[in-house]
Each structure stands twice: as C-alpha cells, then as structure tokens.
Amino acid sequence: MTVEPWSVPQNADVNITAYTFDVSGVESTSAIIKNASGQTVAIVTLYDDGMHIDGEAYDDIFADTWNVGNNPDGDYTIDVQMSDWLGNPTYLEGVTIFTIATVECNIDSDCQSGQVCCNNACFTDACAIDTDCDDGNACTVDTCDIIACPSACTYTDITACTDGDGCCPAGCDMSNDNDCSDTTPPIVNITDPAADGQEITTDTYTVAVTATDGESGVAYVDFFLDTSFLGSQLYIGSDTYTWVYGFNGVPNGIHTIRADAYNNADLVATATRSINLNRPGGEPTVTIDSPTNGSIVNGIVSVQITATDPDGGTVSEISLFHEVDGLIGSVVVSPPVSPTTVNIDWDTTGYPSDGTIQCIYAGAYDDLNNYGQSPTICVVPDNAGPIVDFTKAFLDGLVKSGNNAGGGSDAYYPSAPSGTVTVAVDASDPVSGIKEVVFYRNGAPAWTISGAPPPYQWLWDTDVEPEGSSFTLYVEAYDGLDNSSKTAEITVVVGHCYFWPGGCDYKAGYQCCLDKNNICIDPGKTCGVIINGNINSAVEL
What we know:
The protein contains one helix and 44 strands. The chain has four domains: 2-100, Immunoglobulin-like; 187-277, Sandwich (Immunoglobulin-like), CATH 2.60.40.10; 285-381, Immunoglobulin-like; 387-531, Sandwich (Immunoglobulin-like). Mean pLDDT is 80; it is low at 399-418 and 496-541. The termini are far apart.
C-alpha cells in the first residue's frame, strides 16, 4: 500500500493505493484510517484501478482519494481489509503511516479564510473585542488580547470592594461594597427571665434567648453578666439559645443579663434584662478603712480592709483590686472569722504623679462562698518631687552685660545700698503642693520657709561675707508627702572686684583690680557678687 503525499495539511487530499492478490480473485478492498490513539477517523472504499468498480483479477490495484478534513495534526495509520470472491476476508493492520501537519505560512493570505498566520502557522483568532470574551461572571474582568497572535481572552479576578459593579469579592461586606448582601442586624430577645427586675434566689439560672436573621442567618450569640463575658453559643439549627448562669461569688443585688446576636455578615444586635439576685444567707459586707477616698498617697501603701459576714458565718478570704489592673493581692483568713481586718500592700510607684486618680475596691468570700464587694475609693498617687528652679529675675540680676578694660564682657550686680541679694526660686507641685523650701549655702541650710505660699526667697546680706570668698548655692523643695527636688548648684564670689590673673599693675603692695568705671581700686572696698567664676566678669555694688 502507498499513500501520497505522506505528509499533508488539513483539508488536503491523500491518494491511497493498495496492491492485492488472491488465487480466487479480489472482490473488494477498504482502507481504515486511525489516529495515534487507535480511534478510527475514516473508512475509505478502494476501487479496481481507480475506476470505482469491484475487482476481477487474481491480482489487482485498488485506489481512491481521501480528504483529511479538519482532523488534528499528528501521525495516522491505514489498515487494509479485503475479501476474495469466495468471501474470505484478509486484514492487514497498520501497514502505512502518514502525517497531518499544520499549514506553514508567512502572511495571513497564506491561510484559509478567517485564519491568521502566527509564527509561520495558521490559527483562528479567539476574539476581536472584549465582549467576545464575556464569561458571564461579574467578578472577573474579561479582556480580548488583540496583540497576541492569535488573539486570546484573559480573565482577571476582581479583588477591590467597589459599589455597583455587581461583584462582592472575598473580604468585602456591606460596609465597603453595596454589592454584598445583608445590611440588617439580627433580631434578638431575652425570653427568660421574661421581665426586668425578676428576683432570682438560686445559685444558677438558665437564660433563654431567641435570635433570627432573614438574610445571612444568625452565626452565634454571646452571653454577658453585667460587663463580664460568659461564653458563646453557635447556631445549630434552632432560633433558641440558652446559657446556664452561675452566681457563686456574685453579690446579691441588681445585675444585668445581656445577649449579643451576630449574623453571618458580622452585624450585631443586643438585648438586656435586669435581674434582682437575692440568694439566702447574704454576702459579706466589705469596707476599705484606709486610705480614705480622695486622699493623696505615695510609695507602698498599706490598704486596711474590714469584712463582716452578717448571717453569723465567717469570712474566709479578702482581696484587693485595682479597677483597671485587676487583682493587687489576697489574704486567706485562717482560721475563718467574722468580723476581720487585714492589710494588703499596694505599690503606687508605677502610676503617674500628675494628679491622675487611681481607684481600688475590695472583695470578700464567706464560708458559704457568698461574695461581697466594697464601694470603690479613688486616690491620687504622688511619687515625684516638686518642680523647683532659680527665678529668672534672680539669675538676670546676677549678670548684667558691659565692658571693661580687660576686653570682652563683664557682669555687674545692680546697686543695692544694703548689700542684700534676694535669692529667689519658683517651686510648685501639681498634686500635694509645697510643704517646705530650704536654701543651702556651701552645703548647709541658710534659710528655711515652711508652710508658706510663694514667693520663696532668701535675703542674703553679702556685706557680712569675707571679701572675695566663693559660695555654692542650691535650693531643695519638699511637697506635702516629703518628696523632694533640688535646683542645680551655682557658684558666686563675693567681692567688689575680680583679681585679674596676670597682666595687672600693683599699687601700694596690693594686687590691682578694676571697677566698672575701669578705675583701679583698693581691695578693701565693700563689694558685690561674681557668678560661676567667670574670669572675664567683675561685679560691684
């Protein structure tokens, strides 16, 4: 058998010829064409000498033409089946192989109508405009890539939350995309207790809630007692949700039951019910004896607490709490007794000393595990010293610019007929106020002001100080809780002139110095003050 040509493009013809022989003569011959997977794609009847008549001779040539059509590229085999005049069949399998190959091209006109030439092969474009690529999915951007050869459709998932685009991507909800469903919170009601103020006398009580949502459905319900979260119940096919409330350690009195229902769009609705907890036996009464409400405290504070069990029982444990930080400390009363008083230390040094209040309360358990709680008291910690510094007026008075014969700048103390210098400080404390201000000269107290309002000043008579002597000055201030702070030290020199180091004339055996009028003067003259040993400075009263 022969096939010509052995390689053809789609829609081309191949000539199939079979050479046969049989002693009784060949009656008919067929070519069975199979693809590479063994599937039959065509059966072609071959005719004697190509004349479309059955065979007659003992040996003969059977042939015909087959158009390969749109069969895909690949290798194909031709099996031959023939029968003789006695009806005996003969079958030859896979005797000939030929190939369908993609049309080679250089330009579009080399291809069939509707095809384009891409990389020397003919293809059919997938699209011409974007709408040709519409996949019906609102959450994809459908694009026709007309630059590609052949053109192709691309699909990009939308991730942005955009109103009005008909798409609700993952992570979006009605708060940022109105295409997402469910804008309505659930409906929630507390059905048991049925009314506010219901009295409960047992240690436990089963609270019942109904919650519904007609859009996304209820996801779960959170249960609270007052502000304390107790737990959650997931939706399990029923609109009724229950929670067993336990009241051990909860004081008798008015409390609030709360249920928060969330739907699957994370929208929440809340229902509340007040209850009057009145269990027999009664809880302990608890008071904080000291410190008192509104007081100022510092350091480690010993908080005194008294607890009494009014029903004749005993107190077994007392605890102290900060309203934000929680437990400060506990004392187990052994043996249990009523009434009882304990002290629990509270370290206040970690709190700001700016007037901010800190609030505490105490709790106690009795022998029946009933819990009682004290009223809350609030105090103001003060662990920082006052703010204290020399006044600007005092410092400015010590230094006054001018010129002298030595060049540069000098400093004069203003004239004071009495020779008295007013040493002054500003002192303040935002919490406990100023209790005492002490002025130090050369490390020893020179003047103390106690329990007096501003101004805080010391009148220093410099006339009695030795000529040319040097002094260090600082001031320490104490607040109402004896926290203290100091100013920086300053150095002053008492004398009417400054002995210049070198380059000075001598007169009558004395080292010469200049006054503010550049006149050489006697060191014995009454003088003023020099600040911080400035060698280019001299002062005079």
